[in-house]
Write a structure and sequence with these properties.
The chain is mainly β. The protein folds into two domains: 82 residues, Immunoglobulins (Immunoglobulin-like, Sandwich), CATH 2.60.40; 89 residues, Sandwich (Immunoglobulin-like), CATH 2.60.40. The protein is 12% helix and 43% strand. The chain has one helix and 14 strands. Strands 1-2-5-4 form a four-stranded antiparallel beta sheet, with no helix packed on it. Strands 8-9-12-11 form a four-stranded antiparallel beta sheet, with no helix packed on it. A three-stranded antiparallel beta sheet has the order 3-6-7, with no helix packed on it. A hairpin with an 8-residue loop joins β8 and β9. It is elongated, with a radius of gyration of 32 Å. It starts with a helix and ends with a strand.
Length: 213
């Protein structure tokens, strides 16, 4: 009789230990959150993005590029708390063709990265003239591929400020076109090659070489 009671106690004890282990295993269940990701779309200078898998506690976000400060000219990013899905867009700055890392970061430090490919569609510049390129000649210019957000532009010469006669430079651009028009009169400079630059009000620019001789 005593042996049966002792066996029964052992069985009850073993059952309680098993129940405790099962309960502990249930309490240690881990929920794995999917990795944050972003995807890009768009063409030209304007790029839009959507994200997923960010922390649901994020309420703000921002866009950056660890590889180049100049690749993002302007940006916007919004996220609604509880969704973990930021979205927004950015404008590509005047950078050389290549691959650049784009990063979207939530206000809790979570982030996702992707690559944006900037092709060779950089601003182009052409110069035409009526007379021979001598001091006093009038030169007309056209620049394409500037940012569509530009509303004003200006002419300058990084190589010599005197090649553009003061008070004669004119440059106009209609927002949304990325095409600038204008002209200037060549100043009293020596024969040679001079860099002429058209600069948009967003900081983007295009250059060409003017031969005076």
């Amino acid at each position: 009789m005593e042996n049966k009671r002792w066996v029964a106690l052992i069985l009850i004890r073993a059952f309680l230990i098993c129940a405790l282990v099962i309960s502990a295993a249930s309490a240690m269940r881990i929920t794995v959150q999917s990795e944050a990701v972003i995807s890009l779309s768009g063409s030209g200078h304007d790029v839009s993005f959507t994200g997923a898998g960010f922390l649901p506690t994020d309420t703000t976000c921002y866009v950056s590029s660890p590889s180049s400060n100049g690749v993002i000219l302007s940006s916007a990013c919004v996220v609604e708390a509880g969704t973990g899905a930021p979205y927004g867009g950015f404008t590509i700055g005047n950078v050389p063709p290549g691959e650049y890392v784009i990063q979207v970061t939530g206000n809790y430090g979570d982030f996702a990265q992707t690559i944006v490919q900037v092709n060779g569609d950089t601003p182009q510049f052409s110069v035409s003239h009526v007379a021979s390129l001598q001091p006093g000649s009038r030169v007309s210019i056209q620049a394409t591929g500037l940012l569509p957000t530009d509303t004003t532009c200006q002419l300058s010469s990084p190589s010599s400020p005197n090649v553009i006669l003061p008070g004669t430079a004119a440059c106009v651009i209609q927002a949304g076109t990325g095409v600038a028009y204008g002209g200037f009169i060549i100043g009293n400079v020596l024969p040679g090659s001079y860099v002429i630059q058209v600069t948009g009000n967003q900081g983007d620019f295009a250059q060409t070489v003017l031969a005076v001789g």
